[in-house]
Amino acid sequence: MSQFLSFGNIETYPLWSSQTYDVLGIDALQEQEARRQALAEHSITDAMKYSEITISYLIHWVIFREVKNLLQLESYPLVNVLLWDAGRKEEVGGEIPTQNITSVSMEHDLRDYIASNPQVIEKGLDLVEKEFKVGDAGRIDVLLKG
After folding, report:
1. What are the beta bridge partners of residue 119?
2. Dist. CA 124–CA 117, nearest whole Å
């Protein structure tokens, strides 16, 4: 869900993955507070009426928004880059060269960024093909496989 929402508007909707979320080290109390805040913001009085996936996304949205605001970042892709790089540094125990992404607001920039960094969607994904036609259905910008 986060991929589709963020592709529609990366300024409003975060793209999160378990890899970037895990880097934050959110404890149970913090997650519970984010849940309370998410339900309140969306006027949800009975979370049982919603899919747990939806509630989980709203919780992650609150957390990523707070990270974005705390770090005074312009967009959610910048949050993801910082968290992904931090996670990679933890894995290898050192400096990782980063890709400069100053202009991810345009569709082709986002497509190219995801094609070059499929791990921001989910760890273990690899690029199959970028920008190809699918008959009368149109085109696929990025095809990834895990």
Report:
1. none
2. 11
Q: Which residues, listed in sequence order, are joined to residue 145 by a DSSP beta bridge?
A: 126
- Count the Cβ atoms, other than its own, within 10 Å of residue 80: 28
33-60 b/e (C-beta count within 10 Å ≥ 16 → b): ebbebbbeeeebeeeeeeeeeebbbbbb
- The residue whose two tokens read 């791990």 is 119
For 68-104, how does the pLDDT look when each residue is reduced to its tens digit (9 = 90+)? 888 888 778 788 778 877 777 666 565 545 555 554 4
Angle at 42 between CA 41 and CA 43, to 5 degrees: 95
Q: Is 123 left (phi over 0), alpha (psi -120 to 50) or beta?
A: beta
Q: Locate 44 and state its tokens.
A: 């949800």
- 8 A C-beta contact, residue 37 and residue 61: no
Q: Which two tokens stand for residue 5?
A: 């929402």
Q: Read off the pTM.
A: 0.58
